[in-house]
Amino acid sequence: MQFSIAHLGPAGTYAEAAATAYVRYLVETKGLKSSLYPYPSIAQTLWAVARGEVDLGVVPVENSIEGSVSMTLDTLWQIDTLQIQQALVLPISHALISLAKNPQEIEVVYSHPQALAQCQEWLNQNLPQVRQIATNSTTEALQHLDQETTAGAIASERAASLYQLPILAHPINDYPDNCTRFWVVSLQPSPGGNHTSLAFSVLENKPGILVKPLQVFAEQGINMSRIESRPTKRLLGDYLFFIDLEANTCDQSVKLALAELATYTKTLKIFGSYSIVNR
Ligand SMILES: O=C(O)C(=O)Cc1ccccc1
Asked: Where is the ACT domain (predicted)?
């Protein structure tokens, strides 16, 4: 059996590097083979899995510097049926790629918003006048370089070599220990593991409404490793909360906490329990 794995494309993105790492992991741990399928956006990657076009999808979820990838969280909430199979953490190192002769010729820099944000300080110091334009992915940004010789793109060294484009500067990320966490998702139940992710909306917008939902974890001695709020997009000031726990849904304490949590929330979505692989 061969798995099909969707990722943000075109070829050479960091998501593809994460998907490749997962392909290796599947071969090494389970002897399973798989092939990769690029999609034009993170949302389309997730919907392809939800529609059953592919078995699995690999999407970025959080960066050590920039924080959450909102597109991933918002789409997961919207889709409802996807379960996390595995988390992967990859080091991320960005390059400035351009056909310009030197960085001073560059007037505009294209990249994925996360990559632009992770190089903000470098851009301010070295190219303070350039316009920054967001693209769906780092490799989509490379498509502008052929037509615009005064354009630069931020992508990986691997992407530059794949498309045979020159690197003008590397590394240009503001922090050397730049890492991104990716989730592998599918329609299958999650396999279990020491990390659990969930999201909920609250019953009403009133003082202290988050106290009880969060207290259930404290009472069961469960450590929360991340909390992130996202707008519901219905009313200004109305939020969803995304939470990561250092806990497995198979543990009795987690089962109790989640059952109680359901009574304090309007909608509760449990994305599953999984382990983390560092590559
Ligand atoms: O655009 C890409 O290459 C992606 O995979 C998204 C991304 C961008 C920057 C850091 C990590 C992931």
From this structure: 198-275
List pLDDT tens digits, range 172-205.
999 999 999 999 999 999 999 999 999 999 988 8
Distance between CA atoms of 260 and 12, rounded to whole angstroms?
44
Where does residue 49 rank: exposed (0-12), middle (13-18), buried (19+ CB within 10 A)? buried
ipTM for the complex? 0.97
Can you read off the two tokens belonging to residue 258?
Answer: 């989640």
Q: Report how far ligand 1's centroid is from the alpha carbon of 35 (Å).
A: 20
Distance 71 CA to ligand 1 centre (A): 12
Write out pLDDT tens, residues 90-135: 999 999 999 999 999 999 999 999 999 999 999 999 999 999 999 9
User: Going by CA atoms, what residue is nearest to atom 7 of ligand 1?
Assistant: 14
For 83, counting Cβ atoms within 10 Å of its Cβ (0-12 exposed, 13-18 middle, 19+ buried), the class is: buried
**CB distance 38 to ligand 1 below 6 Å:** no
Decide: 205 and 238 in contact? Cβ < 8 Å: yes
**Is the CB–ligand 1 distance for residue 182 below 6 Å?**
no
What is the CATH number assigned to the segment(s) 2-91+178-186?
3.40.190.10
Superfamily assignment of 95-169 in CATH? Periplasmic binding protein-like II (3.40.190.10)
The answer to whether the beta carbons of residues 247 and 254 sit under 8 Å apart is yes
90 lines ligand 1 (CB under 6 A): no
**Fold for domain 195-278?**
Alpha-Beta Plaits (3.30.70)
How far apart are the CA of 138 and the centre of ligand 1, in A? 6
Element holding 50 (H helix, E strand): helix 42-50
pTM of the model: 0.95
